[in-house]
Amino acid sequence: TAAVAALLLLLLWRRRAGGAGRVCVAVLGDLGRSPRMQYHALALARHGHEVSLLGYLQTRPHPDVLRSENIRLVPVRELRGLRVGPKLFQYVLKVLVQSVQLLYTLLRIDQPSYILLQNPPGLPSIAVAWVAGLWWGSKLIIDWHNYGYTIMSLSHGRSHPLVLIAKWYEKLFGRLSDYNLCVTDAMKKDLWVNFKIKAVTLYDKPASYFKETPLDLQHNLYMKLAKDYEPFKPRAGNPSADRSAFTERDGNSRSVVKPRDRPALLISSTSWTEDEDFSVLLRALEDYERFIKEGAKLPALVCVITGKGPLKDYYNGLIQKLHFKHIQICTPWLEAEDYPLLLGSADLGVCLHKSSSGLDLPMKVVDMFGCCLPVCAIHFECLHELVKHNENGLIFRDSKELAEQLKMLLLDFTALEGKLHSFRENLRASRQLRWDQSWDQTVLPLLGNTE
């Protein structure tokens, strides 16, 4: 009919017209906790593109994003309180409402030439972004961080009908994209073998502000955190007004020093979801406490676990039942600018991320390595693409192995020899690519180098 022909002509005109220089970066999740998508937006803005950064505004994005004149935040309201009828009905209703809400938002932004979408979550965002792309004449780029269906399978099991539908959906609509990025070579291979989707690997790389923190800034950060968190306060018997648990400023020279009897600072970060079992770390800490009671010359330990997520209250309940004499645990939420400073100040990082697909890598380890912070990470299939055992960190399989690694690494942690120091030196010497350089080499050619 004439109406259909007219609509097709309009869509063809829009596809040709594009939206020169404009890109929509979209995630159906919290923008403040989507660092890779924020990095995409900043890289695009750096090359002169106007960026609509679309997602939930629960957590404040990085100050660089907020300051950029080329980035406009486009909020999507998060759905809450759909608790009517059976769970399956609630889920279907949520997907339908999200679809309408997301499409409405995508059709109200300035016409983009590209829509760059994070997956997961891909249901319903891939199909909605594809429809919006048809309307705008935009090319769709999917950035595959993982598979949504494998995350769903953690709580439902691989054979659950919802999981099977989600897999079929990702496979079908994933093929409708114009370009695809992914986070590991293992995922690139899997996308092609199982989904017939061609992707380009863009490894997560640390942003430039992930680096070792100078002593002065370390001290300022510790003093700031000590106002709210007990483990950062100086131990009893050290009433100095300018002292934290880890550092002290000399009253005369004003220089900052780290006392030899300071505790070791261990840091882990998490989204508090099913793919990270923090009971592994808690059991390892129980063994560490026992080592000290049995006479091992180990330092006291401050364990900081950062992040927000659904299982945080559950694990905080477990932590409160532990009664350690030599270990303190706190679970703060850090401002975006403080998190890199704390990573750059720590002695050791621990990662408990176990990929639901076995194909993605933990960004938290990437950031730790940017700060030259050695890591103990739990084993899964493609972790070797990032953590080199006995070179930049250690890989463990259970709490006993982690406890032994903590004992070995922290036995002489302030000395300028030993494993911990050599791992840090190896990270300093590796001179790894930063996000901007990697992005320019990998993504910019896909966009035709338009600036």
Describe, in plain words, how this protein is organized in 3D.
InterPro entries: ALG1-like (IPR026051), Glyco_trans_1 (IPR001296), Glyco_trans_4-like_N (IPR028098). Its main location: endoplasmic reticulum. One of its GO terms (molecular function) is chitobiosyldiphosphodolichol beta-mannosyltransferase activity. Pfam families: Glyco_trans_4_4, Glycos_transf_1. The longest helix has 20 residues. This protein has two domains: 206 residues, Glycogen Phosphorylase B (Rossmann fold, 3-Layer(aba) Sandwich); 218 residues, Glycogen Phosphorylase B (Rossmann fold), CATH 3.40.50. The two termini are 41 Å apart. Strand 1, helix 2 and strand 2 form a beta-alpha-beta unit. The N terminus is likely disordered. It has 16 helices and 15 strands. Helix 4 runs parallel beside helix 5, helix 6 packs antiparallel against helix 7 and helix 10 packs across helix 14. With 451 residues, it is of the alpha/beta class. A seven-stranded parallel sheet has the order 3-2-1-4-5-6-7, sandwiched between helices. Strands 12-11-10-13-14-15 form a six-stranded parallel sheet, with helices on both faces.
Task: Quickly list its features.
40% helix, Rossmann fold, single chain, 15 strands, alpha/beta, disordered N terminus
